[in-house]
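User: Need the bound-state model for fructose -6-phosphate:
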Amino acid sequence: MCGIIGYIGKKNSVPFLIEGLKKLEYRGYDSAGIAVAEKATVRRVRAVGKVAELEKAALLSDPKGNCGIGHTRWATHGKPSEENSHPHTDCTGEVVVVHNGIIENYLPLKEKLQALGHTFQSETDTEVIAHLIEENLKRVSADNEEQRLLRAVMKTSDELQGAFAYGVLWAKTPQQIIGVKNQSPLTVGLGEGENFLASDVPAFLKYTNKVLFLEDGQTVVLREKSAKVYGLDGQEIKVKPVKISWDQKTAEKGGYDHFMLKEIYDQPQALEDTLRTAKADFVRILGLKTEDLRRIKNVYLVACGTAYHAALIGKYYLENFAGVTASVDLASEFKYRTIPPAKDTLCIAVSQSGETADTLGAVKKAKELGFKRLAICNVLGSGLTRACGSVFYTHCGPEISVASTKAFTSQIISLYALAIFLGHASGNISQSQFGKLYKEMMALPKAVADTLKIEYDVRHLTRKIYKAERFIFLGRNVDYPIALEGALKLKEISYSSAEGFAAGEIKHGPISIIDKGTPVLVLMPKNHLFDKMLSACQECRARGAWVVAVTTPDGAEEAAAVTDKQIVVPKASEYLQPVLDVIALQFFAYWVAKRLGRDIDQPRNLAKSVTVE
Ligand code: F6R
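Assistant: Bound-state model below.
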């Protein structure tokens, strides 16, 4: 999982490459590098650490050239080191490659190439691509060097197995960059007299919003004034550019200290934008007529991490409003367990990036099982959206912080919308019930905006406990997944131990980890489960816990009698309440991490899109 960038145009490519890599750091940031065509050679600069380190190194060695490629890495094969940083080269140093993904057959290929006399400089799987191109350049013939490189690259792609997107620069053809896409993302930005290659659009959005989304098996040849796409058979394909409506500002921090905080504050807008299209989109995208909707009996939700927590809430929605049986699987588990084939089954894949390898794998399996497939996804043109028959987009804009916030609440509301539309279409809920639920849903962005006012209170209460060794989150029903999400968010960015439990479960074991002063955050909006949550608070307090209630105004007083602190969020309907409750936990995680001085937007060991299994 890494970020690729390429620039070809009239200007010096280096500033474009560095800037693009900074925008791609969310894909990985343990080392970075660039390679620039300079006269008849290619100059490489690489550095361990974030792109800022590369920038310093590039300033010192000052490479210049109007054609270059770059890479920011998240290690899969070989530790983060300068030798393992991309770009990698062949034996001559003239073929230079940047790559995202995993070459599954790199070991046999490496052995074959070594037997042919190739010497390897790194432990990476990527380096085999460069040597294989070098080898294939000897084997193919063409009228000119540009064509020869294209043929050698296509032959190389044929020999590679796995998920990959890569970019190639050859010293002998400094007027072109070649890009290849197979199961890893790759896009092309079409500028005026300049073109870009990148793993994701923000890398070049400042310069152009005209984008070609490449499909698997496609190869692109970028020149200053052209971008030609070729299919597996080597024939040119016409790909229509898409105009992206996100502007660069949307992808920037907007004055907040961290993208995560900005993205928490983006939520009212994100939900509004998502809901704006919900009605029309669900009728259109489900692509299903009423009689088809009526027939759906089973739903499998598949997702990873935070998206999995959204999917867990989706199960409550689908069963309650749509009256269908829903089960939720971690995508990485779904792929490998036995799923009985069943008619009239819908698989819903939930993913912010649409590039999560496990989720893509689960969808592939759903396809093999003959299930209808719906993606709930935030990224236009991503792998998942192409792998599913229907797509509902969460319109929350680019989510840059590794810790997902606005994508999560947008996913929840999308699942809610889906469930009520499905329930309405299938007759499971009446017209008047639907009208009420719809109205409540449309009022949610405003309630989210009101909820954001709690930041100060949350920030204040973290002062006392941010150094705690372990945190516990408790919830019930639709707030149980929120407890899991609160714990995930906190451990992800603060590195503190945190666990989420169904409140009814603590007496079955987890209560033994509660000690004097252990912070326990209890999700307890005033509803039919409120009394049970009061008991959970008392059970924890009796063991010395420092209990914080996340409650609604009508529950605040009673909660105060059995807890040490209260965070009061506005009240929504029972099924929408989790969207407001999670905001308290997002702020909580943020402020604990901030007080601990953590790298909030790019926590250690993580990357935004997990494009490897
Ligand atoms: C946590 C987080 C991850 C992602 C997970 C799935 O804050 O962001 O747990 O939710 O890696 O990613 P997507 O949604 O892109 O499939």
